């Protein structure tokens, strides 16, 4: 490849040569520097909403959004300067200040990107406490439970539903602190064009979206002497089973693609 | 359709006819009664005034008098305003029922209606419009035609050099020459950030793309700001013409103006202007027989402040939720429908035709080293002459507040001036001599903003003011990014706590830390500037915050929770009137004194 397709920059004091068109996040990763992200899902949700991935670029006012912004020749980047670390800590604090923190009983406990970041940042207390959003849990859908008291408004679910599944059942409603993920006229997911594919759950970094748990019903059916119980696996389930056995998933858009965990 | 020659003829004939509008000594038998038909005066019944004048003129058989609706004269505090030309008599606070008297006394008897004459604030002398202190230090470039022409009459616009600049551009200048002229003029964006306009045009011209767009930002969402509205209401054609010039310069054939729907008069006038320009063949295909075509459309905004942010505005025009996009890429490279797009503010455009006709040198001779030309401000708050003012850059705040604004009413003292709206800061007395330009204002913790200028007297509590602006941003945050969505809410909660007398020792430190992080980490300009009112009041009025927190005392007496009424027991006679009258039963009676 011709020389001009490469870009020279400095990340945390290290001279880095990267391909043109790379994001700052990717360039940092290429030299082993981990920048936390929350809302970022490669190719699917590249919006820069959560602000966790901010970095300092010398000579620029304000922080750069590393998950989207491309590298430029001569950039001098600081990914872990005191100012950046403080800002990330404040952002995380703010997110946690408006989050139902019932981690112990949460379906995502131990596998939650937000929880992992809280551990990574050694969050021991929340500095900016205040009003919390109150949402009623929507569990009317046969397969998806939505608890927006845990939503961090990363919008990965929206992007997945709209851009990957091409359904567009959900979008953002209201403004500012009252923003929330919603459906047309704020109906239950049961009553809109949701196809129950469950990809939004896969995309969600927190416990705001989860599968409906039917274990009790299965047990009940199994215990029912008069019932002949058979198993039928949906395509999505087959993919999930395959994943458990480490088959590659070509359509992967799940949480493991964002980092931060 | 009109040919260039026909338009030149209209210009010449109409200009002669309208000479009395600008020339005190115009030799004419005609008189024009100019009535402000801007939003302010309209809501004080100026349409009725126009009707009554017409009726009265008919009833009294007065000849050679025309009643003309115009845009804003500026001195809104004295509206509705009526000016009679050529003698330039200025009647203020006119009511519909006064029209008959003006017609009889002024027009028929040739005497002045003394009681309606506009008087100077401090010495009560009667002055002509341009002799009033309010106008003396002003210089009208963007507002040149406001209050002079009928905005709904294209011929009147043409009479005052209208559509001459586009003609000059199409036949005498290349796009590069135009862009150079704008660059050399030193014009910077009037929408707030002050980006050099010529450079922006150049970037858009250089951007690769088969289709380019011109956009005018008329969202004007700052509380108290009405500069852009007044320009659109008073001189819509100058924005149409400037957008055409921009289109020709950068290679765009389509323009959109994004106006908030709360500006019905501006919308209607602008639509009329578009229709008239199309009717004359000035807008449309192959303008004046050249191969330049340009079309213009209005898009209505629903009144979200964030839609004034250029990328949110573009999203909104495209029919999506008005949320900012991450920059870069900037609109010049990737704007409307991801095509190269030039977006400028109304007032920025309003300067263009004058620069083209009078030259870059002329424009650059006005203002300061880095801020050229003039700036329009909507002067409001605790100041005598509220209204619309246009001053050369470099004018000091003191001149605006005292010389033009007439000072602080009700014998109170100046406390602070707020510029830049919810993105700006509060400027204290010690900085009153700061010259108005982009850099100086930023240096003292405020910003030029789009031109809201609110004066506050000593009855205002600065903590409460900061809270007011924060409440505005909390309401208007789009909710896309974390620092702004949750952070401004938390700031507002802390401020509320302080105003409620529940502030704690470390609140100010927490507030400052949060503010600085929101400023740096937010995605768009709204969040990046939202903490400014808090930071600037913390900087200049910190002792007021401390008084609220430490002494549980509001020095200005505005915070109700901290109001503390004491009864001087040596003077109390125990009459009990206070107990009887207190609506909430806060007073009880013991022995002789109320407690
Ligand atoms: C929250 C926010 C609101 C804004 N509102 C306006 C507005 O009402 N009118 C305007 O012209 N510019 C507004 N701007 C600035 C625009 O983003 C943009 O910079 C401007 O329209 C560019 O034009 P100019 O270069 O002529 O100033 C706003 C910016 C922000 C961040
Ligand atoms: S529900 Fe989950 S994926 Fe959707 S915005 Fe909230 S946190 Fe993000
Ligand atoms: S700073 Fe505020 S208004 Fe701007 S994108 Fe973020 S949430 Fe929206």
Summarize the structure in words.
The complex is a heterodimer of chains A (261) and B (595). Chain A is of the alpha+beta class and 261 residues long. Chain A has three domains: 1-131, Ubiquitin-like (UB roll) (Roll); 133-224, Alpha-Beta Plaits; 231-261. Helix content of chain A is 25%, strand content 13%. Chain A has seven helices and nine strands, in the order ββαβββααβαββαβαα. Chain A has helices spanning 24-30, 82-97, 113-120, 156-164, 199-203, 215-223, 235-244, and strands spanning 6-11, 14-19, 54-57, 64-65, 76-78, 144-146, 171-173, 180-182, 209-211. In chain A, the strands form three sheets. Chain A has a five-stranded mixed β-sheet with strand order 2-1-5-3-4, sandwiched between helices. A two-stranded antiparallel sheet of chain A has the order 6-9. In chain A, strands 7-8 form a two-stranded antiparallel ribbon. Chain A is globular, with a radius of gyration of 21 Å. Chain B is an alpha/beta fold. Chain B folds into five domains: 15-133, 3-Layer(aba) Sandwich (Glutaredoxin); 154-364, NADH-ubiquinone oxidoreductase 51kDa subunit (Rossmann fold); 374-460, Ubiquitin-like (UB roll); 463-550, de novo design (two linked rop proteins) (Up-down Bundle); 565-595, no CATH class. Chain B is 41% helix and 13% strand. Chain B has 25 helices and 15 strands. Chain B has helices spanning 4-17, 19-22, 39-43, 46-59, 99-108, 133-136, 154-159, 164-172, 175-185, 197-206, 227-234, 236-250, 264-279, 310-317, 346-358, 360-364, 397-404, 438-443, 462-476, 482-499, 507-521, 525-529, 532-540, 542-550, 577-581; strands at 31-36, 65-70, 82-85, 89-91, 213-218, 254-260, 295-301, 341-345, 374-381, 387-392, 414-419, 425-428, 452-457, 589-590, 593-594. In chain B, the strands form four sheets. A five-stranded mixed β-sheet of chain B has the order 10-9-13-11-12. In chain B, a hairpin with a 2-residue loop joins strand 14 and strand 15. Chain B is globular, with a radius of gyration of 26 Å. The model of chain B has no long low-confidence stretch (mean pLDDT 94). The chains are: A alpha+beta (261), B alpha/beta (595). The interface between A and B is medium-sized, with 34 and 32 residues. Bound molecules: flavin mononucleotide and iron/sulfur cluster (2 copies). Residues 189-193, 195, 217, 219-221, 305-306, 308-310, 343-345, 348, 450, 524-526 of chain B line the site of flavin mononucleotide (FMN).
């Amino acid at each position: 490849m011709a020389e001009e397709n490469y870009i020279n920059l400095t990340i945390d004091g290290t001279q880095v040569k990267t391909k043109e068109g790379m994001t700052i996040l990717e360039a940092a990763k290429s030299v082993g520097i981990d920048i936390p992200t929350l809302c970022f899902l490669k190719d699917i949700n590249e919006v820069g909403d959560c602000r966790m991935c901010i970095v300092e670029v010398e000579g620029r006012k304000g922080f750069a959004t590393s998950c989207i912004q491309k590298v430029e020749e001569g950039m001098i980047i600081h990914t872990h300067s005191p100012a950046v670390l403080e800002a990330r800590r404040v952002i995380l604090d703010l997110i946690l200040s408006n989050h139902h923190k019932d981690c112990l009983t949460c379906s995502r406990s131990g596998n939650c990107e937000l929880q992992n970041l809280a551990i990574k940042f050694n969050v021991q207390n929340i500095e900016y406490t205040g009003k919390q959003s109150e949402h009623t849990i929507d569990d009317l859908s046969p397969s998806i439970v939505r608890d927006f008291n845990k939503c961090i408004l990363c919008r990965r679910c929206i992007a997945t539903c709209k851009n990957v599944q091409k359904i567009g059942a959900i979008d953002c409603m209201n403004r500012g602190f009252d923003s929330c993920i919603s459906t047309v006229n704020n109906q239950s997911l049961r009553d809109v064009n949701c196809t129950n594919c469950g990809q939004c759950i896969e995309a969600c970094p927190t416990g705001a979206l989860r599968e409906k748990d039917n274990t009790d019903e299965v047990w009940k059916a199994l215990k029912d002497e008069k019932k002949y119980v058979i198993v039928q696996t949906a395509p999505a389930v087959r993919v999930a089973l395959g994943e458990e056995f480490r088959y590659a998933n070509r359509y992967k858009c799940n949480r493991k693609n964002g980092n931060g965990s | 359709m009109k040919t260039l020659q026909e338009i030149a003829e209209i210009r010449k004939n109409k200009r002669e006819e309208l000479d009395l509008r600008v020339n005190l000594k115009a030799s004419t038998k005609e008189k024009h009664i100019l009535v402000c038909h801007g939003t302010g005066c309209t809501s004080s019944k100026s349409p009725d005034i126009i009707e009554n004048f017409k009726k009265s003129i008919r009833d009294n058989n007065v000849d050679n008098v025309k009643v003309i609706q115009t845009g804003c004269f500026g001195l809104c505090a004295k509206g509705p305003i009526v000016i009679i030309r050529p003698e330039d008599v200025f009647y203020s606070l006119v009511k519909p029922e006064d029209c008959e008297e003006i017609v009889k006394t002024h027009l028929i008897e040739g005497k002045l209606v003394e009681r309606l004459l506009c008087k100077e604030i401090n010495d009560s002398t009667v002055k002509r419009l341009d002799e009033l202190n309010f106008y003396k230090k002003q210089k009208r470039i963007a507002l040149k035609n406001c209050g002079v022409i009928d905005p709904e009459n294209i011929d009147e616009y043409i009479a005052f050099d209208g559509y001459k600049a586009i003609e000059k551009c199409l036949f005498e200048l290349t796009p590069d020459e135009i862009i150079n002229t704008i660059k050399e003029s030193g014009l910077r964006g009037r929408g707030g950030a002050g980006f050099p306009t010529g450079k922006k045009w150049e970037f858009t011209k250089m951007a690769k793309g088969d289709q380019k767009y011109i956009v005018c930002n008329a969202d004007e969402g700052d509380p108290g700001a009405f500069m852009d509205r007044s320009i659109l209401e008073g001189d819509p054609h100058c924005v149409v013409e400037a957008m055409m010039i921009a289109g020709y310069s950068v290679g765009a054939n389509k323009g959109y103006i994004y106006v908030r729907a709360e500006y019905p008069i501006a919308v209607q006038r602008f639509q009329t202007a578009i229709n008239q320009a199309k009717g004359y063949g000035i807008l449309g295909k192959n303008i004046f027989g050249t191969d330049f075509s340009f079309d213009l459309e209005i898009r209505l905004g629903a009144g979200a402040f964030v839609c004034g942010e250029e990328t949110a505005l573009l999203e909104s025009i495209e029919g999506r939720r008005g949320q900012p996009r991450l920059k870069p890429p900037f609109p010049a490279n990737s704007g409307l429908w991801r095509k190269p797009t030039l977006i400028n503010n109304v007032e920025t455009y309003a300067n263009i035709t004058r620069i083209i006709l009078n030259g870059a040198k002329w424009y650059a001779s006005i203002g300061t080293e880095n801020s050229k030309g003039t700036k329009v401000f909507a002067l409001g708050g605790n100041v005598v002459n509220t209204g619309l003012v246009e001053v050369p850059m470099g004018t000091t705040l003191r001149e605006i507040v005292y010389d033009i604004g007439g000072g602080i009413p009700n014998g109170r003292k100046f406390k602070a001036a707020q510029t830049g709206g919810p993105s700006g800061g509060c400027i204290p007395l010690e900085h009153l001599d700061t010259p108005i330009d982009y850099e100086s204002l930023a240096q003292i913790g405020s910003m030029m903003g789009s031109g809201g200028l609110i004066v506050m007297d000593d009855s205002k509590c600065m903590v409460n003011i900061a809270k007011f602006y924060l409440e505005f941003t909390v309401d208007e945050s789009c909710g896309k990014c974390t620092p702004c969505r949750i952070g401004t809410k938390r700031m507002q909660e802390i401020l509320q706590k302080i105003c409620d007398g529940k502030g704690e020792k470390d609140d100010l430190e927490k507030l400052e830390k949060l503010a600085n992080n929101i400023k740096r980490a937010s995605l768009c300009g709204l969040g990046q500037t939202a903490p400014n009112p808090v930071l600037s009041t913390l900087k200049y009025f910190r002792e007021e915050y401390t008084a609220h927190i430490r002494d549980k005392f509001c020095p200005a007496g505005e915070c109700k929770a901290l109001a503390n009424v004491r009864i001087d027991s040596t003077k109390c006679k125990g009459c009990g009137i206070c107990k009887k009258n207190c609506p909430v039963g806060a007073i009880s009676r013991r022995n002789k004194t109320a407690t």
